[in-house]
Amino acid sequence: MQPLTDLLSSKVKNKSIKLTDAQHQSFNDIKTALAQKAETRYSAFSRELLAVYLSIRHFRHFLDGRSFTVYTDHKPLTYAFASKPDRYSPREIRHLDYISQYSTDLRHIPGRDNVVADALSRNVYGVTICSSPLDFTAIASAQQHDDELIQLRKSSSLKLTDVPLPAAEGTITCDVSTGTARPYIPQQFRRAVFDSLHSLSHPSINATKRLITQHYICSNVHKDVSNWCKSCIKCQQVKVHRHTKTPIGSFPMTQTRFQHIHMDIVGPLPPSEGYSYLLTIVDRFTRWPEAIPISNITAETVAKSFVERWVSTFGVPSVITTDRGSQFESSLFRHLNQLLGTHRIRTTAYHPAANGLVERFHRQLKSALSAVDSTHWTEVLPLALLGIRTSLKVDMNCSAAEMVFGTTLALPSDIVHRLMMIV
């Protein structure tokens, strides 16, 4: 018999060779193995296209003559039929041609919402099926001395009756109010019932509760099933838990004025007198706010405004809290911190609540500017800051001006009182 390696080489050279049935089967197996190995080197687009092609070919007897939609989490695949064919390989064109014979409706679905298809690929440990069924004879025997069942017979609205056991002598107490016989399960058999149903496909807590209550009667089923599902090792290994709750952190409270400040940038705003942005700074201890109009948000402009308007007035802070903006991440701002001897804290990316002190000030400042004149906001900014600085802080029971100057600031409404004092 001629070796298969020679047959493969002869096949490549287009030689005519008559194969036996065993050689033909082995040859097809080798071709299939080589093809599968080559598919692992496909691009992401080719692999997704191959998955759609193989799926439609597998279910073609269900899909032929029907209108259907293909959902994929690979967004470039949805533009395949609208793109020029010269950008695809001959293999990809063949796949697209086959798919177009059935449907051209390819739609995108985010990966986090594609749980129907992902549920099959994520269960890498397989399905564990309970091999030992429930012993209903032992359950019926335990029912005779169960105190909870005695109380249910007296006070429950369930329709409890004795049903003959299907494969043994005796009866078992069941509820027939729903039209089906649901056996009552004593305490010592409830975990076995949970294992026999939950181990089929490891459904969620609510799905497991409904599955158990549809077939059995158990007390405290909601609490027990919740605890058992959360402690299921297989569920923890293969399921994606997206509801991780991280505890909210906090900054240590400062004891000195202008020691810890929070910085951020507001904008772009409507152009006013050549300015389109605001550099905002809030002192953590006194809550003293500062809003500095700037024309652009380059690192040079931000650093210069910070030194001229804050450092020259209130001194050098010890700690500066900012977000991860490019202005604050620049080498210029980093060298400025080294020169001043300050320590900079970066907040969590895409989490404005981490810099909530200055973000809350932005909300109050934008409301004040919009309520007065949002077009010429540079003209009303000083009086808006005066109102914010003199407003009462509920948590401190005083205003920011009182924390800085030790007394209240005179407001425009106080002019009448001052004139009366002069007279």
Structure in words:
It comes from Stichopus japonicus (Sea cucumber). Keywords: Endonuclease, Hydrolase, Nuclease, Nucleotidyltransferase, RNA-directed DNA polymerase, Transferase. The chain has three domains: about 100 residues, no CATH class; about 100 residues, Endonuclease III, domain 1; about 150 residues, Nucleotidyltransferase, domain 5 (2-Layer Sandwich). The chain is about 45% helix and about 10% strand. The protein is built from 19 helices and twelve strands. Strands 8-7-6-9-10 form a five-stranded mixed sheet, with helices on both faces. Strands 3-4-5 form a three-stranded antiparallel sheet. Helix 3 packs parallel to helix 5 and helix 16 packs across helix 17. The longest helix has 19 residues. The chain is flat. The N terminus is likely disordered.
Provide the CATH superfamily of the largest domain.
Answer: Ribonuclease H-like superfamily/Ribonuclease H
What is the name of the CATH architecture of the largest domain?
2-Layer Sandwich
- Give the overall silhouette: flat
Strand content: 5-15%
Structural class: alpha/beta
User: Helix amount, in percent?
Assistant: 40-55%
Strand order of the largest sheet: 8-7-6-9-10
Low-confidence stretches: 1-17, 123-132
Distance between the termini: 126 Å
